[in-house]
Amino acid sequence: MIGPIAATLLFAVAPTSAAALEESIPVRSETEFADDPDHPIPFIQAIDVMAQAHDGREVLVVMIASPLDADERLQRRLLAKFDSYLGYIQSDEFRREFGPPSREQTLIQVMIHPDSHPEIFELLERCRPLIEGAGASLEIDRSFLATD
User: Fold this and answer.
1) How many CA atoms lie within 13 A of 17 on its CB side?
2) Number of alpha helices (DSSP H) and beta strands (DSSP E) in the chain
3) Cβ atoms within 10 A of the Cβ of 10, count?
4) pLDDT, tens digit (0-9, with 9 covering 90-100), for 8-58
5) Residue 66's pLDDT is what?
6) Order of strands, edge to edge, in the sheet holding 106-112?
7) Chain mean position to CA 83
8) Burial category of 32 from C-beta neighbours within 10 Å (exposed 0-12, middle 13-18, buried 19 and up)
9) Calpha distance 13→30 (Å, rounded)
C-alpha cells in the first residue's frame, strides 16, 4: 500500500478523483513495494545515504545508478521511496537527533542517472512543492554517472 505522502504526490502529478486514482494506480500485489534487488529502485524503505554536509544540513540521498524508464511500477516505487524519506524526516526519531526539519537544514538529494526518461525528471519536479511543504528541500543531480 502506498503511504499518504506518495498518495498526495500522485494527486499532485495527476489531479483526479480518488476513485479514478484507485483505478489508475492500484497496487498490483502485496509485494508491490517489497525489496527487489534487480529493480533500479531496489529498497523502498531504506535511506540510501545520509550525511551531514559541511554547512550543517542533513542530506538524505536517493541513489539511482541506472537509467529509469517511465513505467508505472517504477513511478510508484519512486513515490513510495519519497514517502519513506519524508516519513523519516517527520518522525520523532529524526527530530530527537537533528531537530525539526526545515528546507534550510534538510535536503533530499536525488542522484539520478542522466539518461533517465524525461517523464521521470518531470515527476521529480512535480514532487518539489510537497517535499518542501514537508520540511525539506529537493536537489536533483543529473550529473551522477555522467560520462562527459
Assistant:
1) 3
2) 5, 4
3) 20
4) 555 554 433 334 434 444 445 557 788 899 999 999 999 999 999 999 999
5) 92
6) 49-52, 58-64, 106-112, 137-141
7) 6
8) middle
9) 23
